[in-house]
Structure formats: structure tokens, C-alpha cells
Amino acid sequence: MSKRTATMTDTHPARRWDPVVKLTHWSVALAVLANAVITEEGSAAHVWVGYALAAILGLRLLWGLVGPPEARFAAFPLSLGRAVAHLRDIRAGRHVAHRSHNPLGALMVYAIWATLLVVIGTGIAMAGLPPARTGARLTVSEASARGEAAQHRADSEDRGEHEREERGDHGDGEQGEGIAEEVHEATATLLYGLILLHVAGVAFESRRQRRNLALAMLPGRG
């Protein structure tokens, strides 16, 4: 590759993210952080953060269909072949501009979204759908009762496990809830790992391109 070609491929246009992408990105990050280190598992706060996370993710997925070109799924297709080619570019020191996420970044985005869907789905399977109330909000006492009920179910499962083992009885419903809880915890752990890899990938690409890619996701930037 000639020096002229190298210079052209090393030039990256400034990444531009629209306000909805920025809002959903940081909202998801805050919701995951809140339920990971702040709220108590099974509490009303934990459940409601989960509901909010579902709404935020739903908005981002909808925006992938109707949003601006850089935010749409077509701008960062899920492609293992493209990801492998991007790895070859990295190894060869080539810098290819992408209008949205690069192919490896796209794989990570879809992996995080898929994991979030499983976490949210299993969480709703355990806690139930949010109450449908017309013209009224859930009171503090009702929210607390909902959280206590979820915690009570978890405690009852622990107490009843020994009794079921003694009787040799494994109810299908309780077994289903136990599976949902196990999948929920496992995928949540996987999600934390993916997020760490995502942060590492952004740091690596920022160093490789000699510009801070995270700045483009901040409000008022890009």
C-alpha cells in the first residue's frame, strides 16, 4: 500500500451520534450499574429499574428501524465475515473508516442487546409484568409489597428446596421459576463481562485511531 493510500485510510471522519442513541446508551449503562451495585435483588427498586431498562432497550431497537442512517441496523450489520476482515485490518495496521460501529463493535452491540433481552425476559418471568393502572401511579406501599413478594418467593424457594428433596417432589411451576432465576443470574454475569470487553474495545480503538471515541457519545459532542 502506498504512502498516499495509507494517509487516506488513516483519516477517520468524526463520528456523529444522535441524541436518542446517546440517551439510550447512557440510560442502559446507568440502569445496569444501578441493578448491579445499588438495588437489592428482588426489591421493588430492582424490579422497576428492570422495567425501565426494557423500555429503554425497546426505544433503541425501534430507533434502529426508523432513526438516522448511522443509528440503523443496516449501518452496522451482524457479519462474522466482516469482523474477521476487520481483525485482519488491525493486524496489518490498516485503518478503514466506518459510518457507524466497526464490524467488531457491531458484534459486541448485538451480543449486549441479546443478553439484555434474556436478562429482561427472565426478570419479568419472575416478577411479572408491571401493573396496568389507568390515571394512577403505583403507591410506595404497593411497590414495597411487590418487592417483598418477590423476595418472599425467593426465600420460599430456598426453604422449599430441602422439603422437595426429602419428598422427592419437583413441581413443574417452581422448577420453571428456578430455571428462570438461574438463567437470569448467569446472563447478568455474562452481560457484565461483555460490557467490560466493550469498554476495552473502545479504549483500544481510541488508542489505535489516536482519538477518544467515547467523546462522541457525550451530550453536546459530535
TrEMBL record:
InterPro entries: Cyt_b561_bac/Ni-Hgenase (IPR011577), Di-haem_cyt_TM (IPR016174), Hydrogenase_cytochrome (IPR051542). The chain crosses the membrane at residues 20-38, 44-63, 104-129, 186-204. GO terms for cellular component: plasma membrane. The keyword Transmembrane applies. Residues 149-173 have a biased composition (Basic and acidic residues). Residues 142-176 are annotated as: Disordered. Its main location: membrane. Pfam families: Ni_hydr_CYTB (PF01292). GO terms for biological process: respiratory electron transport chain. It is a multi-pass membrane protein. One of its GO terms (molecular function) is electron transfer activity. Residues 16-220 form the Cytochrome b561 bacterial/Ni-hydrogenase domain. It is found in: Cell membrane. Keywords: Cell membrane, Membrane, Transmembrane, Transmembrane helix. This is Cytochrome B.
